[in-house]
Design goal:
This protein has 2 domains: 9-94 and 132-172, no CATH class; 97-127, no CATH class. Helices cover 47% and strands 15% of the residues. It has helices at residues 9-18, 21-35, 37-46, 53-57, 87-92, 137-167, 169-172, and strands spanning 58-62, 70-74, 99-102, 107-110, 115-118, 125-128. It is elongated.
Amino acid sequence: MTKVQLLGEEELQRCLKNLPYQIRRRLIISSLRTAAQPMRQQAISNAPDNTGTTKRAIVIVDAKGDVPMVMIGPTQGKRVKNNAWYSKFQEFGTKGFGKRTRRATGVRVNFKTGSVYRSRVTTGWKYKGGGLPAKRFMQRAFETRQNEVLGNIKNVLNKKVVSYLRRNAPKYVK
């Protein structure tokens, strides 16, 4: 069994700054993915299980951009295996997205009599009907597991940096 010596915050930041950008990014994203697993598991247990597709679609994805970060949520799109395109409706509800009718009136012409008259003008969309109530499965997972995930990030990152430096110590020790 190997013992992992935990680094302090200053030592950890110094070790990360000495590493090349790509390696630093890979270590941070790997740590974030590992630390975010409890939140993913909570979201899966909170998700509605009518068909199970929403539960299977909840994944941890690397975010694009300069700052290393991860996103947790259901996958959507044409080229995705478990396409839970409707999960946004389950999360936020569909109140106000019922049948919509346009209420726009203005000048009316009666072609039989040739009379022109102006009716009362009302514009905008009118929504009719109820909707699906919001389940908020992702929000509840975030609220219940955020402190645990934030506490895990430093520990997991620390262990990954120490194990990486043990394997490649002569390259990056200054």
